[in-house]
Amino acid sequence: MHVHVNAAESVDGKLSTHEREQVAISGPEDFDRMDALRAESAGVLVGVGTVLADDPSLTVKDAERRERRTNDGKAPNPARVVADSRARTPPDAEILDDSAATYVLASEAADEAEVAALSAAGATVITAGSSRVDLSAAFEQLEARGVDRLLVEGGGELIFSLFDAGLVDRLTVYVGSVVIGGRDAPTLADGEGFTDPETFAALSLTDVARFDDGVVLTYDVQKE
Ligand SMILES: NC(=O)C1=CN([C@@H]2O[C@H](COP(=O)(O)OP(=O)(O)OC[C@H]3O[C@@H](n4cnc5c(N)ncnc54)[C@H](OP(=O)(O)O)[C@@H]3O)[C@@H](O)[C@H]2O)C=CC1
Ligand SMILES: Nc1nc(O)c(N)c(N[C@@H]2O[C@H](COP(=O)(O)O)[C@@H](O)[C@H]2O)n1
């Protein structure tokens, strides 16, 4: 599985406000760059926290990009994937509309009725992990279904877990010219955090580019 994490943060590293409401940190040029990344992906992954906060659609917005995908023999939109251990995704969430296939990565702790409701709403539920989604195992099951290239759009809890598990290949971060602040506002990587510097995720900066009134930093992730 190739895993590319892309997110937009303020200069102080926040993904949104302490109220965890969606804010536009980047502008039209960066949203278009993100749309191109979606169009190149087999799947777009977010955590259930992002689904509950933002209710994103995770579709390709540009019609020409969708047409190019169709001409290449692909579905117009990549699959939508949500990491959701307890099947908390609302059955009327945007990611469950009929624009694309939707996978819910759940754990054995998910309530059977909630899983059934998501299946009835059109999702394919993949179970991996006892109390929380085992991301490596879930990715193997996604690959078996042809989803072999994931764009991860957040949020901070999920992104930390992916780095912690050594699953990230590439990171692009849009740094917007704004300070959001707030000790409880989500950051690019939340979770437990690393303590031993030996275990920090090590990155190689490969590009710096200006988009809108901010910069996009591109990194390859060093793997042992
Ligand atoms: N600026 C940007 O680019 C973006 C901003 N955002 C913002 O980020 C915020 C949401 O981020 P956040 O609250 O961190 O939520 P996330 O989207 O990271 O979702 C976190 C949840 O995912 C579930 N999950 C399942 N498996 C795992 C796993 N193995 N590791 C970690 N999490 C797992 C957990 O819930 P459970 O245990 O129930 O499964 C967890 O609470 C919102 O405010 C949103 O607006 C979001 C995306 C992009
Ligand atoms: N690149 C980027 N810049 C921002 O300023 C953002 N707030 C986000 N958020 C992500 O975009 C998703 C919205 O997707 P749809 O337009 O609904 O398809 C949102 O959920 C975040 O993943 N990204």
UniProtKB/TrEMBL annotation:
Residues 1-28, 59-86 are annotated as: Disordered. This is 2,5-diamino-6-(ribosylamino)-4(3H)-pyrimidinone 5'-phosphate reductase. Homodimer. It comes from Halolamina pelagica. Residues 2-217 form the Bacterial bifunctional deaminase-reductase C-terminal domain. It catalyses: 2,5-diamino-6-(1-D-ribitylamino)pyrimidin-4(3H)-one 5'-phosphate + NAD(+) = 2,5-diamino-6-(1-D-ribosylamino)pyrimidin-4(3H)-one 5'-phosphate + NADH + H(+); 2,5-diamino-6-(1-D-ribitylamino)pyrimidin-4(3H)-one 5'-phosphate + NADP(+) = 2,5-diamino-6-(1-D-ribosylamino)pyrimidin-4(3H)-one 5'-phosphate + NADPH + H(+). One of its GO terms (molecular function) is NADP binding. InterPro entries: DHFR-like_dom_sf, Rib_reduct_arc, RibD_C, RibDG_C, Riboflavin_Biosynth_HTPR. Belongs to the HTP reductase family. Keywords: NADP, Oxidoreductase, Riboflavin biosynthesis. It comes from the Archaea.
